[in-house]
Amino acid sequence: MQKEIIVLLGVTGTGKSTLINELVARGFCCYPEISRQVTMKAQEQGIEQLFLEQPLLFSEMLLEGRIDQYKNALEEPDNVVFIDRGIPDVVAYMDYIGDEYPESFVKACEDYKYSKTFILPPWEEIYQSDSERYENFDQAVKIQEHLVETYKKYGYELIEVPKDTVENRILYILDKI
């Protein structure tokens, strides 16, 4: 069987982490979202919202971490690896805020390709703000548009995961792989 590196994408509050946690509980190899770790590390250093205060630095750190996740996923003994958010997310968020970024961001999107991409739609009923989520639901919807546009630009076919129970969402994803 060929190595499958599968990304779950979508804006904050769509249930990605819940699905990753459930996939882990079922024995799948999964890599968590790293933006919270980057944000929390900056907060420990006195920077409340690194993405808002230094978006390029934040994005460079995310890109580096996501490339590392991809490379590590290739080395996993498991044939299927799930990752919470992918490399093109970095470009989509930078485009959303309208900031410039180096060509290396584009090259990373071209060089590291995922096998499948599952997108979780914005879901207001489960959306929650917290100290690491700076956007409100309306902003999240706009960011989702950038995610869709960016992934399509890099040739991905997005498989939309329906709004449903965790169990049914997992079954839907597993059925598609």
Task: Give the topology, please.
Layout: E1 4-9, H1 16-25, E2 29-31, H2 35-44, H3 50-53, H4 55-75, E3 80-84, H5 87-97, H6 103-111, E4 116-119, H7 137-153, E5 158-160, H8 166-176
Major sheet: 5 strands, parallel
How does the helix and strand content classify structurally? alpha/beta
SSE sequence, one letter per element: EHEHHHEHHEHEH
Q: Let me know the number of strands.
A: 5
Number of helices: 8
Strand content: 5-15%
In whole angstroms, the N-to-C terminal distance is 12 Å
Q: Which term fits the overall shape?
A: globular
Please provide a written account of the structure.
Helix 4 runs antiparallel to helix 5 and helix 5 runs antiparallel to helix 6. The radius of gyration is 15 Å and the shape is globular. The mean pLDDT is 89. It is an alpha/beta fold. The termini are close together.
Task: Kindly summarize this structure in a few lines.
The protein has 8 helices and 5 strands. With 177 residues, the protein is α/β, with parallel strands linked by helices.
List keywords for this structure.
177 residues, alpha/beta, 5-stranded parallel sheet
